[in-house]
Design brief:
By secondary structure, this protein is α/β, with parallel strands linked by helices. The protein folds into 2 domains: about 5-70, TusA-like domain (Translation Initiation Factor IF3, 2-Layer Sandwich), CATH 3.30.110; about 85-190, DsrEFH-like (Hypothetical Protein Ychn, Chain: A, 3-Layer(aba) Sandwich), CATH 3.40.1260.10. The chain is about 35% helix and about 25% strand. The protein has 6 helices and 9 strands; from the N terminus they run βαβαβββαβαβαβαβ. The chain has helices at about 15-25, 40-50, 95-115, 140-145, 155-160, 175-185; strands spanning about 5, 30-35, 55-60, 65-70, 85, 120-125, 150-155, 170-175, 185-190. A 5-stranded parallel β-sheet has the order 8-7-6-5-9. It is elongated. Residues about 75-80 have low confidence and may be disordered.
Length: about 190
């Protein structure tokens, strides 16, 4: 029998948290997660896949049905080693804003050529402006994404600044994913 997790109407990051709890409760098998927001659907799918699960998603009448299959060999709390970058502003350093924006652009362009690359880059608060329409660093972020770096913008922050529809690069994420990645990262760089 498939267990069902009804996460409709729950704010971010509760759909992911409830999915994690349900996957921890089973050694193997499947669960069905119901969500009513596209960003919740994407966040739950990304989380389940990060845990080695198979995911099939369908949408009916505004409700996303996520069929998640956990295999016995998969450990639900496996953590990969990683370097994570957290960017919470649209400039580097304090002081002159024009200089700060120039320095951040240089930082991101330099990161394109540097090794090793971070596994994930999270953008939150004013940092989400960097991943949206009109940003002067979109080319650098697209280049990083093309080189395998996950570019992730906080959904709550995008909503706060009314930028959800203006996202140009990367995916929308949630606080659970941010916290989980920061706690499991080998090295966290915060800007």
């Amino acid at each position: 029998m498939t267990r069902q997790v009804d996460a409709r109407g729950l704010p971010c990051p509760h759909p992911v948290i409830n999915t994690r709890k349900a996957l921890r409760d089973i050694e193997e098998g499947s669960i069905t997660v119901l969500v009513d927001r596209p960003d919740s659907s994407e966040n739950v799918q990304r989380f389940a896949r990060s845990q080695g699960c198979d995911v099939a998603a369908t949408e009916r009448d505004g409700v996303f049905h996520l069929e998640i299959v956990k295999h016995q060999a998969v450990q639900s709390d496996a953590r990969a080693t990683s370097q994570v970058v957290l960017i919470g502003t649209d400039q580097l350093g304090t002081g002159d804003a024009v200089l700060g924006k120039k320095l951040l652009k240089s930082f991101l362009n330099t990161m394109c050529d540097a090794e090793p690359k971070p596994v994930k880059m999270f953008f939150l608060n004013e940092g989400v402006r960097l991943t949206t329409e009109g940003s002067e660093v979109l080319d650098a972020l697209e280049a990083l994404e093309n080189k395998g770096v996950e570019i992730l913008s906080c959904g709550t922050c995008l909503e706060h600044y009314d930028l959800v529809e203006r996202l140009e690069v990367g995916l929308v994420t949630n606080m659970y994913d941010i916290v989980d990645s920061l706690l499991s990262g080998d090295n966290v760089i915060s800007i």
